[in-house]
Design goal:
Layout (H helix, E strand, L loop, with lengths): L2 H4 L25 E5 L14 H6 L8 H8 L3 E6 L33 H8 L5 E5 L6 H7 L2 E4 L20 E5 L2 H11 L10 E4 H5 L3 H18 L2 E4 L6 H27 L5 H10 L4 H21 L5 E5 L12 H21 L3 E9 L2 E9 L4 H11 L1
Parallel strand pairs: 1-2, 1-3, 6-7, 6-8
Antiparallel strand pairs: 3-5, 4-5, 4-9, 8-10, 9-10
Helix pairs in contact: 6-13, 9-11, 9-12
Amino acid sequence: MSILDQDKLGAFCRHTHVEMQGAASGTLAGLTFGLKDIFDVAGHKTAFGCPDWLRTHEAAKVHSVVAKKLLDAGAHLVGKTHTEEMAFSLTGENAHYGTPVNVAAPGRVPGGSSSGSAAAVAGKLVDFAIGSDTGGSVRGPASFCGIYGIRPTHGRISLEGVCPLAPGFDTCGWFARDADLMARVGDVLLGGKAATPGRILLAQDAFALATPEAQAALQPALAHVTQVLGKAEPVTLSAEGLNNWFEVFRVLQFAEIWDTHREWVMRERPNFGIAIGKRFEAVAKVTAAEVAQMKPKREEIAGRIDKLLANNAVLLLPSVPDVAPLLNCPHDQTTAFRERAMGMLCISGIGRLPQVSLPLANVNGLPLGLSIAAARGNDEMLLALAKKIN
């Protein structure tokens, strides 16, 4: 039976459906996975969440590196999962293909842009699923859907054969319902060894961005984590305010998006959904002067983060500021939530850090993630810690 017959959540794409059995043996043999529809599979088209992208691009000639590694490890690809249009949003609401159901928070968004992958894992349609994270597109959905999710170190995993959004921030991430499987997938895609963790830090200014209800809900999770890992030392990441860091991230991300897609957008004039259309209008307005101002700021911030997280330090912070927003929220409420969320999500983006969202908290039964982050290259350490904390 095809996954399309089983999928009552709207997590999988019908317009780019592909199923492919992996190698007969391997470390992931017997496991099923979904692949966000920005990753190429040989002989099939990739839609990027956008009908006009699907219309104007040919079928892939080769597998994306990520898909090939997973298939070679024995995993069974059951289908491609929905993404926000151009992978450019945090809610998961696609104007063309619909919004996957969040089984962990009915009536609320699954998060985006890796909406289908998160929904499929939370709904037990697959064992694990691949997403991407540029500005929070794995960490947000993981928190909203009550599952594990990782944004790896920028550049650790090849993005060859993946539709880009902003290459200087794009990463390949994944979701699972348990920490052991998160680490098994990491063994295939990362292949390194875990370092011994150093001091434990708590990002006070990131916690300050969470709602009072979320802050209260995260306290038992923090108590559990610090009982396992050791006492946490409070730190302030940004003396100038995390909203200033978000502005650095926004300008540079927007500039990269426009540099990457300007030619196609200008030539094809795609029929974007209203929200994505407005975002592309915004990305086109970023000036060269703004980019020149923000580039050195990013590197200065990244340098500060590197010093803070030296010697394998582990940083604790909320994954997002609150539980999943309601479906069809007014635009102003969605914008306000996104800007608040990006104040904490931009930290790992600017610093190129790995970050794992752990499903350890809830607000009135609705999932909320607590994150652990670390210096670049310490992805395996975070996955090992997730198993220890579990």
